Amino acid sequence: MKQRQQEKRRSLFDGPDDGSQSAQAKSHVSADTARVEIEKLVKEINRHSYLYYVLDSPEISDEQFDRMYRRLKELEDQYGYTPPDSPTLRVGAPPLEKFEKVRHSVPMLSLENAFSHEEVFEFDARVKKLLKSEGDLEYTVEPKYDGLAVEIIYKKGVLYKAATRGDGYEGEDITLNVRTIKSLPLGIEPGHAPDELEVRGEVYMSIAEFERLNAQRREKGEPVFANPRNAAAGSVRQLDPNVTAARSLHFTCYGTGVARGLNLNSQSALFDWFKKNMFPVPAGYGVANGIEEVINFIKDLEVKRSSLPFETDGVVVKVNDFRLREILGEKTREPRWAIAYKYPAHQAITRLLDIVPSVGRTGVVTPIAMLEPVRIGGVTVSRSTLHNWDEIDRKDVRIGDTVVVERAGDVIPHIVSVHTEKRTGRERKFPIPAHCPVCGSSLMREGGEVAVRCLRLDCPEQVRERIRHFASRGAMDIEGLGEKTVDVLYEHGLVRHFEDIYKLTREKLLGLDRFASKSASNLIDAIEGSKRPSMARFLYALGIMHVGEFAAKLISANFQNVGELYHVQPERISDIRQLGGKIANAVSNFFGDEKNIQTIESLEKLGLKMENPDYKKTEKAEGLPLNGLTFVITGSLPVPRKDLEDRIEAMGGRAASAVSKNTDYLIAGEGPGSKLEKARSLGVKVISYEEFRQLAKNAGAEA
Q1: Cβ contacts of residue 433 below 8 Å, gap of 6+?
Q2: What mean pLDDT is reported for the chain?
Q3: How many CA atoms lie within 13 A of 133 on its CB side?
């Protein structure tokens, strides 16, 4: 009797537990009533998911949760109504044929790394110097999750799209896969939702799930994942979302991109907002008043991290105040207001068997340590960089030594120290070679540089390295033109220059090692498919000294085509915000070389047609009040520096990072630095913020 009374009192949230009651539901519940119940169930299930998957403090049993979920699914199926944030949308999508590309509204920058407490103190000193502050600064500190960086876009409170970080500017659309992550809300409650919000964070896999997944793969005879990070990345990049759903992935938020309608003034306030709206935040994050408290947090987490349920390879330190971040700005690829302290995550002791010099694509000869193979952090390591001969001398590394090797995250394994007490007397030093190990030409070492270089441009290893780089995924992305294939083509004299790649034919490939009919056709198709690269990819592919993917993007945003770079002056490059003198000189030198220009023109004759989606079209600037004028900003101003830079560019001007003879105006606020002295020495006009506003107004715009 008591059981029947309990069943009679059961709420809609409990739902039916068999098909017969479910069948009656449609005939007894109106569409409006069902809609209300569906929305209540969605809200309640999402709340319980947050309690279970994020806070690890469930209020109901698994059986009760499953009963609620079944009731929701039945009602949605019967009445054809599924809210956009319904948990039933997390699974069941059909497989994709490929990942589409997604451009980030705001670049996803990487972080500068620190490997010692001293480097963290130096970071604090740099920040204080830039801000002209002597007192303690407030920082946020959070564990650095070892996972995959992603961006999740919400529009009007509903999860709209998700993308990988990619190259920082463009990633892959992983929306269907990210929807399967149960700790991530599919929607934001009305009234709290900004118009558009780009949430940035890390997708990761717990250590327990990683071990379970690998055990399962071993049983099936499948290759295991090296570490939880690789497992998470591989799970997110599945074309079939059902495979992703079968693996328990987690998410944690660390910041935002575009946030229209979200007015917060600090990182700690952002984390509070995330928690209030059921977004997962980094475990145990905190606010530190001064760099000493930051170091204490780093030390404390180092003790605790072995007991954490996820892999962490360090601590992320950020200036808490968003206004101060605006003043600090960014370098080429990294914000000045944040740093990632990396723990010495994985170390092992092994024997150094030999030292072999390796020639890179820029001619730099690097000593490589050949090691007795050893497992470090789930990976077998048999080679390690020794960086340069100064480093060898500093650590007194000798062939035959017993050494400590470290591998942290994605950092190339390197030798930390030598156990000199284990020497037998048979160890031997490895001097700087006098000649290139590949082509035999004399090696050069310029004054003030640690690098030893082979200057012979036709050095076979340099040529091969340049071609491998040219064809790599971030550059021309020619699938099938990897290291071994390049070696085969080089040895047969088929590829010695970039142009030779586009002169290959199927007939030339047939009969070579590694090439049958299909593989030859596939490579020719891949080469043909690479003929329409973006200008940024092409610039990166050329292998210009100091020009990585990020710098190539910035250059492409300021030049309509490659031809505009021919004989470019270094000042024109250094005028681009975030690009410094080294990059400017390297680009100017490269495009001042007639042979390099001839190579590019030859490639164009062979069918290369570059597109430039990054270019800020100059026609938009024509007719704008500040068109053709270059401004540099220094000191503290009444408005955030980035806002002013954006305003200048919106009015047709250019906001540069360094003063040069091409600068028209220096806008100087309180406490100007060395830029003021340089501007005066070059005769650049110096104006205040109010004078800038008046200048813009006189030119026909309200600043």
Answers
A1: 357, 365, 443, 452
A2: 84
A3: 16
CATH number at residue 518: 1.10.150.20
Are 523 and 548 within one domain? no
> What residues form DSSP beta bridges with 155?
158, 196
Q: How far is CA 556 from the centre of its chain?
A: 19
Counting every residue written for the chain, the total comes to 703
Q: For residue 586, what pLDDT band results from cuts at 50, 70 and 90?
A: confident
pTM of the model as a whole: 0.55
Clarify whether residues 206 and 273 are in a common domain: yes
pLDDT-wise least confident of 53-62, 394-403, 435-444, 507-516: 53-62
Separation CA 126–CA 337 (nearest Å): 10
Neighbours of 63 (CB within 10 A): 9
Measured CA to CA, the distance from residue 310 to residue 204 in angstroms comes to 8
State how many domains the chain has. Answer: 6
CA 8 to CA 21: how far, in whole Å?
Answer: 13
Do 266 and 154 sit in the same domain of this protein? Answer: yes
Do 282 and 175 belong to one domain? yes
6 within a domain of the structure (yes/no) = no
Tokens 């790394």 correspond to: 113
pLDDT of residue 137: 95
- 449 falls within a domain: no
pLDDT tens-place string over residues 413-432 = 889 889 999 999 999 999 99
- Residue of 144, 182, 342, 553 with catalytic role: 144
C-alpha–C-alpha distance, residues 281 and 258, integer Å: 18
Q: For residue 553, indicate whether it is catalytic.
A: no
Q: Which residues does 135 contact at the CB level (< 8 Å), separation at least 6? A: none
- Residue 4 forms part of a structural domain: no
Which of 487, 502, 529 is the last residue before a domain boundary?
529
What residues make up the domain containing 62? 12-90
Q: Cβ distance 663 to 671 under 8 Å? A: no
